[in-house]
Design goal:
By secondary structure, the protein is mainly alpha-helical. It has 4 helices and no strands. It has one domain: 3 helical TM bundles of succinate and fumarate reductases (Up-down Bundle), CATH 1.20.1300.10.
Length: 127
């Protein structure tokens, strides 16, 4: 085997060295919102199953879903759905070969964030 002195080799760069970029943050946020939506789906499916089971069980599930905790989860889920939707449209735009320069990609990332807040506010006001 080759004599390798690992003590003197430089360490690979760590995340703390890099400045967070909008393109990487939006990619990470898309993954986070996608996974977080699983919690909301489980809650809604549980609510529907409780409705199909019995009135007492539905009261329990409905009580949790309409509590302050349930309302926060549903509000954040609405925000996550809109963000995930807009990020998907952004990636379709990228797949068509458009907006691949850094400036446009960053603007589209900020647009996804701003758009998701606006669409969430509209959804809350309408519903």
């Amino acid at each position: 085997m080759a004599d390798v002195n690992r003590g003197e080799r430089p360490l690979s760069p760590h995340l703390s060295i890099y400045r967070p970029q909008m393109t990487s943050m939006s990619s990470i946020l898309t993954r986070i919102t996608g996974n977080a939506l699983i919690i909301a789906v489980i809650m809604v499916v549980w609510w529907l199953l409780a409705a199909a089971t019995s009135a007492e069980y539905f009261e329990l599930a409905n009580g949790l879903l309409t509590s302050w905790f349930g309302r926060i989860v549903l509000l954040l889920s609405t925000l996550g759905i809109w963000y995930h939707f807009l990020a998907g449209l952004r990636h379709l735009y990228f797949d068509a070969g458009h907006g691949l320069d850094i400036e446009t990609a960053e603007k589209l990332g900020w647009g996804c964030i701003a758009g998701s807040f606006v669409l969430t506010a509209i959804t809350v006001l309408v519903v």
